[in-house]
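queue> pop job 88
queue> type: inverse folding (structure -> sequence)
queue> payload:
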């Protein structure tokens, strides 16, 4: 009778770290318990594998004092958001984790627990990865895999004139939450209640990827992408890929109660909300005759969506103010460079 391979005893500090914190998360049989150099992922018949990768770095995408479990969950969720916008179902992920000398066991334990909870919740198991020591802040790079029926990927390039522009959830919360992390006194200027301040900060710390509506996006949207670098800039990228323009009514862009209060107190914050990024909502284009069925498909997930404008035969994404005048932005989206 064939015997199952026995897991080797950890010899180095790195092997012990992997065995203690991450091997318990590698539940997919193709991960081989993280004892091999690679993993195997076999897609179901008739499907394609969708790949995406994103990294988050301390002092750039999160603060040094952010809870470790939230750091882990954010790292996975920003990748899940890309899969959702393509209409793909999560299948697994690889992770490279770069740790400074100052990281302790409690931080790693919380990180692994947060990562494991989201891997379970979103059906996206850990398949493998790497861990290294670095002199700088924590950095987490994840490559996520998803599956969908062959030939059904929702790209950026499918938008056509006359289609409606739709966005999920609310826009601008995370960008305003980031401002609050840098300057908590802003909450008083914006006349925010404690729960509103907490809402904005939480939206920055922990994205809410819209995987629950990925199937609806795949079946109804002609083009889509997740809003990670700001609605203005990301919609502009979609328009450029499709060779079309867009006309958006800025006052139709959905804002949370907290964001509306902040903008009412400081109107220039509307530009921050529209261009700041970290929303991790989905912006997509839907043909007019598919809007009703899209609404019905999204409803069971409890995810709001709002029609904010239309695709035109022009170029670029034009945002109009209440008077119908084009808005000008200092910078249309977040950029690392």
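queue> result:
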């Amino acid at each position: 009778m064939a015997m199952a391979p026995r897991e080797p005893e950890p010899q180095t500090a790195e092997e012990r770290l992997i065995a203690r914190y991450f091997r318990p998360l590698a539940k997919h049989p193709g991960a081989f318990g993280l004892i091999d150099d690679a993993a195997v992922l076999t897609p179901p018949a008739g499907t394609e594998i969708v790949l995406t990768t994103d990294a988050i770095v301390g002092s750039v995408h999160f603060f040094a004092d952010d809870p470790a479990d939230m750091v882990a969950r954010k790292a996975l969720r920003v990748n899940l958001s890309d899969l959702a916008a393509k209409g793909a179902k999560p299948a697994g992920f690889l992770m490279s984790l770069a740790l400074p000398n100052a990281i302790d066991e409690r931080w790693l334990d919380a990180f692994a627990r947060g990562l494991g909870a989201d891997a379970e919740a979103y059906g996206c198991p850990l398949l493998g990865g790497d861990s290294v020591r670095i002199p700088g802040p924590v950095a987490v790079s994840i490559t996520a895999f998803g599956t969908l029926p062959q030939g059904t990927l929702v790209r950026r390039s499918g938008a056509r004139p006359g289609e409606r522009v739709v966005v999920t959830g609310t826009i601008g919360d995370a960008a305003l939450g980031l401002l609050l992390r840098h300057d908590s006194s802003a909450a008083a200027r914006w006349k925010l209640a404690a729960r509103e301040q907490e809402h904005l900060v939480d939206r920055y710390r922990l994205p809410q990827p819209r995987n629950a509506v990925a199937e609806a996006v795949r079946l109804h949207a002609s083009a889509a992408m997740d809003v990670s670098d700001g609605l203005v800039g990301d919609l502009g990228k979609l328009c450029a890929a499709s060779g079309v323009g867009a006309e958006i009514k800025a006052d139709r862009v959905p804002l949370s109660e907290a964001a509306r209060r902040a903008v009412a107190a400081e109107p220039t914050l509307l530009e921050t909300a529209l261009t700041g990024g970290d929303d991790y909502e989905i912006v997509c284009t839907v043909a007019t005759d598919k809007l009703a069925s899209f609404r019905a498909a999204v409803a069971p997930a409890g995810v709001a969506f709002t029609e904010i404008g239309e695709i035109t035969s022009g170029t670029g994404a034009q945002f109009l103010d209440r008077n119908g005048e084009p808005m000008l932005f200092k910078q249309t989206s977040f950029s690392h460079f």
